[in-house]
Design a protein that fits this description.
By secondary structure, the chain is of the alpha+beta class. It has two domains: 129 residues, NADH Oxidase (3-Layer(aba) Sandwich); 222 residues, NADH Oxidase, CATH 3.40.109.10. The strands form two sheets. Strands 5, 6, 7, 8 and 9 form a five-stranded antiparallel beta sheet that branches. Strands 1-2-4-3 form a four-stranded antiparallel beta sheet. Strand 1 and strand 2 form a beta hairpin. Helix 2 crosses helix 3, helix 5 packs antiparallel against helix 9 and helix 5 packs antiparallel against helix 12. The longest helix has 20 residues. It starts with 5 loop residues before the first helix and ends with a helix. It binds flavin mononucleotide.
Length: 372
């Protein structure tokens, strides 16, 4: 049996750290304890997500890295027990505790874990070109099974007509989204922050136009555009068609939902943070699975954030009315929507090129370890 040394724990983090996070902010910090457990904290000072002043995305990202820790530890012969803490809104409190015990997996479990482990450090999201092609039944079943095993549910919006209609609704929402003053300020704050850090932002107006994860060049362009109101309006207007186009060009839009656990909600939305972390674990599994199947999953995260905040009075009127249109669409097509926590929405398509849209760096293990 291997022993769980601090070196092995660091090795596990070495692989897990490639987890995705909104705008690549990597909002995680780990404490290592003498009993070889790991405690996960949210890294508040760096929690500067441009499009996420609802904080949902950070919790989902914590789930993603937790899942990677679990997969990597199984690769090294340890199963993990992950406890997601309920009071996890404050950053002082731990978000999750992970204990490890030596394990022997069945050949089948080992094989499926290994498949995911092998793509963990290679998986990437950023705007790879993909082609629209209907998902076959085997693929759909695999996705559904993965979601179910994690306690979630998968819902697909498919077919040209539906995707076009939804793309239109979502596109008009984006115009409001990027004109929302708070989001704009967040974006600027984030761009300043990201110029000196690892962050690779995406999901921004230029990005929805298909320009890929933003390089420093594009970030600077956005900053400039922000200072010239007319240019900003043009970008926001154009992004509406970008969203429409990317959705229509997808094989499907995939929703990941969980039955609502009314425990603790994130400060601005009514989604329990625990659901977001649990859902993040499943989301990451689906992401890895997609990678093994030659599929590209592109997050439609801004959509999730605003769907959760449909009735948030703190948001502007134009934002709220745009939200209402999306909620109305969801109600008419997905009756399940209101009873569940919507954790993630992805556009999905078949990868046409293995080339990355850009390099997205990750913090080193030393940087994500909490040194007291
Ligand atoms: C919770 C969450 C939300 C995300 N939201 C978006 C998004 O709205 N648009 C987008 O293009 N990418 C989004 N991403 C993907 C990240 O931008 C991406 O994971 C990060 O930049 C690292 O790039 P990589 O995954 O390709 O290595 C999201 C990822 C997570 C985990």
């Amino acid at each position: 049996m291997p022993s769980l040394s601090p070196e092995l724990l660091k090795q596990i983090l070495e692989e897990a750290r490639f987890a995705p996070s909104g705008d690549n902010i990597q909002p995680w910090l780990f404490k290592m304890y003498p009993d070889h457990s790991l405690v996960l904290h949210r890294n508040e000072p760096e929690n500067l997500l441009a499009s996420d002043y609802f904080l949902n995305a950070s919790f989902v990202a914590l789930g993603c890295i937790l899942e990677n820790v679990a997969i990597a530890s199984e690769h090294y012969g340890f199963s993990s027990t992950v406890v997601i803490h309920e009071d996890c809104v404050s950053d002082e409190t731990p978000q999750a505790t992970i204990h490890f015990i030596p394990t022997t997996l069945s050949a089948e479990q080992q094989e499926s874990n290994e498949r995911l482990f092998q793509v963990m450090c290679k998986r990437h999201t950023d705007r790879r070109p993909y082609k629209k092609q209907p998902l076959d039944d085997t693929t759909k079943r695999l996705f559904e099974k993965t979601a179910l095993e994690g306690g979630g549910k998968l819902h697909l919006i498919e077919g040209e007509e539906m995707l076009d209609a939804f793309g239109k609704t979502l596109g008009s929402h984006d115009t409001y989204l990027w004109n929302d003053a708070t989001l704009r300020d967040n974006l600027i704050r984030f761009i300043h922050f990201s110029q000196s850090n690892h962050s690779a932002t995406s999901g921004m107006p230029l990005d929805t136009l298909g320009l890929g994860t933003l390089s420093i060049f594009f970030k600077t362009a956005i900053l400039l555009a922000y200072r010239i109101p007319l240019l900003w309006k043009v970008i926001c207007f154009a992004s509406r068609f970008g969203t429409q186009k990317t959705l229509s060009a997808s094989s499907a839009l995939v929703f990941l939902t969980l039955p609502k656990q009314k425990i603790q909600t994130s400060p601005l939305s009514d989604t329990p943070t625990k659901d977001l972390v649990r859902g993040g674990r499943i989301a990451e599994r689906l992401w890895l699975l997609a990678e093994t199947l030659g599929l590209s999953l592109q997050p439609q995260y801004a959509f999730v954030a605003m769907a959760h905040n449909a009735g948030n009075e703190k948001l502007g009127q134009s934002f709220l009315s745009a939200n209402k249109k999306i909620i109305a669409f969801l109600r008419s097509h997905c009756p399940w929507f209101e009873k569940e926590s919507l954790v993630f929405a992805y556009r999905i398509g078949f990868v046409v090129s293995k080339k990355r849209a850009s390099t997205t760096e990750r913090k080193s293990v030393e940087e994500i370890l909490w040194h007291t």
